[in-house]
Amino acid sequence: MAAWRTERLLWRAEHERFKAARRAVRKNGGAPRVDHPGPPPTGFTLLPWLLMGLGSFSNLLQGRTPSPWIGGLGLLAFNSLYIHVTFRSFDRDKRESVSTRVALGLMGLLTTGLALGYGGSWLLFFPLLGLATGATLRGPRLGRIGLLLSVYAGVVSGVRGGWGDATNIGYATFLSSMVTAAILSLSEAVRELRAAREELARRAVEKERLRFSRDLHDLLGHTLSVIVVKSEAARRLAPRDMDAALAQITDIESVGRQALTEIREAVTGYREGSLATELTRARSALSAASVEPVVRQTGTPLAPQAEMLLGWVVREAVTNVVRHSDAGRCEITVEGAAERVRLTVTDNGTGKAVSRPREGIGGTGLTGLTERLAAAGGSLTAGPSPRGGFTVTAELPADPEELTAAAATAVAAAPGVS
User: Fold this and answer.
1) Helix, strand, coil proportions of the chain in percent (round to 5)?
2) pTM for the whole structure
3) Disulfide engineering: 394 pairs with which of 156, 243, 293, 343, CB 3.0-4.6 Å?
4) Over the range 322-360, which residues count as b (16 or more CB within 10 Å of their CB) and which as e?
């Protein structure tokens, strides 16, 4: 009971977190990204199946069972063993212990004795035995054990109640053992995967925080110390030797510019968005401009350098559609093949090109992006479509090694940190 209360409190906390996230997301529109925690995994989920023994209990109350004291004690012992085994089956260490296996064996002997002694509704204890077996003996051997148990239940039922009952009891025993094992194993795997995903995400965040703080410390620790020392020197020299003070100030400027360059390189990974991020922003921008967005993405995953370059193309092309095309529909298609990657942005607007290169991502418009893709072994073409509108097509090699030079050029041309 104490373990159940603990699990219940944890489930309630997760359920409240899920509801809070759902309310927050509904205010802005959309679906919550938090998984519903579901009910707590305890043996209480298997207790309702004990209702299958109500027929035997009814026979005891109505005096239809010979030796009712023996039957009552047997029913009590069976229910106790069932609860003991099923509750321990939700803990991997407990269900694999010797005491659990012994309790399951005693449950099998008791079920056999009650079935042979009374028959009738007492035969339904075999499906309950199969359920407890499936909950406890999960693994590759369960199939053989479940089949043998089903055949055994069918033979005992045939001897006591006729072969008509044998088929039904055997099938019910096999079905209860297999289905229970499958559902509980799947539920346990889902919970383990969820816990592993949360742990990996937490470790990734911690690792990135440590890396970034370490990089900033290494970059700025010495540099700021030099700036402080030279600033003090310039302050002392200014009253009596202005030329020397100006030399110190010049050094401070040089050190500061070098630090700014190093910070740009350190935070480049934080400033660059992935292609998926740019496609999401494109949908939002087009919808806000009353342009219907249609995005299609097929093929293999892209290299990070390709995603970076194509993301800039998407941002520049969509900006031109919003500002200059007067379009009502814009299609963005990304096709990843074994050798080449193609991005196409097509609208149904006026088909007029941008009058002059506009300052865009990395300080360039379509003209600069054309040069950058060409340096990476790709190409960018833009012009009116044959069926009207304007089309921008970008192609890149799919091999990441061919894009290394382009990534270096893109980082060098990235805008500064203010």
Assistant:
1) 70, 10, 20
2) 0.47
3) 343
4) bebbebeebbbebebeeebbbbbbbbbbebeebeeebeb
